[in-house]
Write a structure and sequence with these properties.
Helix content: 10-25%
Oligomer: single chain
Strand content: 15-25%
Structural class: alpha/beta
Shape: elongated
Distance between the termini: 75 Å
Largest sheet: 8 strands, parallel, barrel
Number of strands: 31
Radius of gyration: 27 Å
Length: 651
């Protein structure tokens, strides 16, 4: 584009004072502004003197700020902004004759050390595709067709709803080998992902972070643009179209969101105005030793306003149904990933990050105040209490918490040779001791299949048949255990290779009947979980769970009941964690009548051996396990079997 040799000017549409109300400045500085994206950043406006763009950026320690871009030859003196005189540290101005699609950055000169830098806009709605780093002026107008979904979505994420989440990395779900093995664009995903989700029976998809990130290998967890979907897959409207198509297919959308840290790339948030503006200056608080990134200064009010506004932005503009908040444990503790002498105690001498706790509570209060029909989910790996309890009760205010303890104990148990599992039965039964202290999601996520950990099926012991059987058992046990479900892409294919962001899932495995069987099992487990109220209605409270027998460690068998809202809804779950079929296994039951076998992970259509109970069993009047009736079962090898109880009279 030709360069422009004129200064920015003000007008009624872009006056540096009139653009922000006194309330905007007040709430921004208090840390309670929830929609700063409407004020900061680049906004196309119409004025009596012509159309243009209003720019505003927070840089309180700058001595000069100007907008540079194609329109002025990237000349730092061509279009200066003016600082507001209210002490907010906001620089603003109106540039006529440019608009949607213009590339730009801010040139910032600091008050200190002669520091100068070219920075991307922290509030940009669109960016260049990495490795390019400019921001792009963008109008977010879009036409949505998901009104029906939005009206009723609250019931789809409630504690009593069946929630089964498919976690996906967009760049490696499927690729196009005929075109250089390129990843799918948002609109291609919109054509292919919704029907797959419907066919598989998942209720929600969770995208690993879509916020723009310079390093593709960070999978989005090193975010530089908190208000822009990554340009790798298309435009913001293309991303909206993907969400819209999922919603119109009846599938909810959860976004992985990262307020715990940010990368140190020169164009990003780090040392933004020649000072540690977004991050702590002291590396004992501001540097993350595990991820080699910067940690937000949650004690700074303006930073909290910006982060809360980012969360609200995705709910407002992209119709996101939930946020999975990454790295919550790293936010809660000042000594996270640090040794003695590498961290600073709080004002009371403790290791808790009081400022981060305050931020997380404010974040959840703001979200649920405006959107009571969405959910927030915490990735929190410690025993911090009341993560998913309301803030007025002293909790952090999240809707759900990932159950990392269940995940670690279960995988550790499943990786053991079945000969030795009987000595570790407590790893399975222990999870019920705390299963209802939080509203839990059971995650088998991407973190379990990277960095040399191998795939899920690769973790399983035994020969190939036993590996497949163990995977089927693991999946069956997860879907029967209290808690909402999350499965990372590829597990439903029984993918052998560890996940890599540089290639597609191994879809060719579905040419094999045994891999087809695993995929069919996941479909049927999703269907069973959705249609049987006993398996989901009380996922988050103890009235829905009762042990049948937790003590049969000698045979590595556990059995339990799941109960629904109505007294008639009762399901018996029995898991045999050895490759030895158990014939004539007696288990007491509370009801007489016919118990229908509604799931058997060893069924032939799933690739199993076909052992089972011929569709169900009649309870016999034999006292056992404290009941007056019993079932005499066949427990298939390395399998979960599930029985629906007969209806009680009058139920």
């Amino acid at each position: 584009m030709p360069t422009r040799k004129r200064a920015s000017r003000e007008g009624p549409a872009g006056d540096v004072d009139s653009w922000f109300s006194p309330e905007d400045i007040h709430f921004f500085r208090e840390g309670r502004h929830a929609r700063l994206y409407e004020k900061l950043g680049a906004h196309c406006v119409r004025g009596k003197d012509g159309d243009g763009v209003h720019f505003a950026v927070w840089a309180p320690n700058a001595s000069a700020v100007s907008v540079i871009g194609d329109f002025n030859g990237w000349s730092k003196g061509a279009d200066p902004l003016k600082v507001r005189l209210d002490g907010s540290g906001i620089w603003a101005g109106f540039l006529p004759e440019i608009g949607h699609g213009a590339r730009y950055k801010y040139h910032i000169s600091s008050q200190y050390h002669g520091y100068e830098a070219e920075k991307a806009d922290p509030f940009a709605f669109c960016t260049e595709e990495p490795p390019r780093t400019a921001s792009i002026v963008w109008d977010l107008k879009a036409t949505w067709g998901d009104a029906g979904w939005m009206k009723g979505r609250g019931a789809k994420v409630s504690l009593s709803a069946p929630i089964s989440i498919y976690e996906i990395h967009p760049g490696s779900w499927r690729r196009v080998p005929e075109q250089g093995d390129r990843w799918l664009a948002y609109r291609e995903l919109a054509d292919q992902l919704p029907p797959y989700m419907v066919d598989m029976g998942f209720t929600h998809v969770e995208f690993m972070p879509l916020t723009e990130h310079p390093f593709y290998g960070s999978w989005g967890y090193q975010t530089t643009a908190y208000f822009a979907p990554t340009a790798r897959y298309g435009t913001p409207q293309d991303c909206m179209h993907l969400v819209d198509q999922l919603h119109k297919s009846g599938v909810g959308v959860i976004l992985d969101w990262v307020p715990s840290h940010f990368p140190t790339d020169l164009h990003g948030l780090g040392y933004f105005d020649g000072t540690y503006l977004f991050e702590h200056a002291d590396p004992r608080m501001g540097y993350h030793p595990e991820w080699h990134s910067s940690i937000f200064n949650y004690g700074r009010n303006e930073v909290r306003s910006i982060l809360i506004s980012s969360a609200m932005f995705w709910l407002d503009k992209f119709h996101i149904d939930g946020l999975r908040v990454d790295g919550v444990a790293s936010m809660l503790y000042r000594d996270y990933a640090r040794t003695s002498g590498e961290w600073i105690a709080n004002e009371y001498g403790g290791r808790e990050n009081i400022e981060a706790i305050h931020f997380l509570r404010e974040l959840n209060e703001a979200i649920y105040r405006h959107y009571p029909d969405v959910q927030t989910m915490a990735e929190e790996s410690t025993a911090w209490p009341q993560v998913s309890r309301p803030t007025y009760l002293g909790g952090l205010g999240f809707g759900y918490k990932w159950n990392m303890g269940w995940m670690h104990d279960t995988l550790d148990y499943m990786e053991r040779n079945p000969v030795y599992r009987k000595y570790h039965q407590g790893q399975l039964t222990f999870s019920i001791w705390y299963a209802f202290q939080e509203n839990f999601v059971l995650p088998l996520s991407h973190d379990e299949v990277v960095y040399g950990k191998g795939s899920l099926i690769g973790k399983m012991p035994g020969d190939d048949w036993q590996k497949y059987a163990n995977l089927r058992l693991l999946l069956g046990y997860m879907f029967a255990h209290p808690g909402k479900k999350l499965l990372f892409m590829g597990a439903e294919l029984a993918q052998w290779r560890e996940w890599s962001h540089e290639r597609s899932l191994d879809w060719h495995l579905l040419e094999s009947p045994v891999h087809q069987g695993i995929q069919r099992l996941v479909k049927d487990l999703n269907r069973l979980y959705r249609t049987e109220p006993a398996l989901h209605a009380h996922d988050c409270d103890d009235s829905g769970f009762l042990w049948a027998d937790a003590a049969d460690w000698e045979q590595s068998v556990i059995s339990f009941y799941r109960r629904g809202v109505h007294s008639g809804d009762l399901v018996l779950v029995v898991c045999n964690f050895t490759p030895v079929p158990r014939i004539n296994y007696q288990l007491g039951v509370p009801r007489a009548g016919y118990w229908e076998e509604i799931m058997n992970t060893d069924a032939s259509l799933y690739g199993g051996s076909g052992h089972g109970n011929l569709g169900g069993l009649e309870a016999t009047p034999v006292a056992s396990h404290g009941y007056y009736h019993a079932l005499t079962l066949v427990l298939p090898p390395l399998a979960m079997v599930c029985f629906k109880a007969p209806r009680e009279r009058g139920a």
